[in-house]
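= Paired protein data =
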Amino acid sequence: MPLYELLSAERVAILVEPGDRNAVLETAARMLSEGSPLIAASLNAGLREREKLASTAIGHGVAIPHGRSPLFETSRAVFLRLAQPVDFGAPDGQPVDLVLAMAVPEHHVQQHLQLLAELAERFADPGFRDRLRSAPSVAELSFRLLDHCRRSAA
């Protein structure tokens, strides 16, 4: 499943005051839940548990918090750009300012691994990261992220 199918403009945001890692995960869970407090709480707990196993930061200021959930039939993602970088315990020691959080159905194990590999490859591109960091607005950030994903899939 291409990344642009997981995201929508409504699930892209710039967090001016992101707080700490737990606050970022809570925001991501809330956006992934699309308004359901019960789903948000479950996703938040899952994202935190996954983060306890090992940091989801992949370096270069990027983190990909993720988890499988029985609450969804299809995969979904949110993208957050943090105005103030947050410590995610990255292997390179850099704080994180680009976060792509996702939830995939519990039974989609292979799809989950493929998505993680695709995301790691995409965010390894310094030009891509720079374009996201330099977007002047949420609308432009959304366009740069989703347009790049569509073009890459074509």
Q: What stands out?
A: Helices lie at 3-6, 21-33, 37-53, 109-123, 126-133, 138-153. Residues 12 and 79 are 5 Å apart (CA to CA). The mean pLDDT is 88.
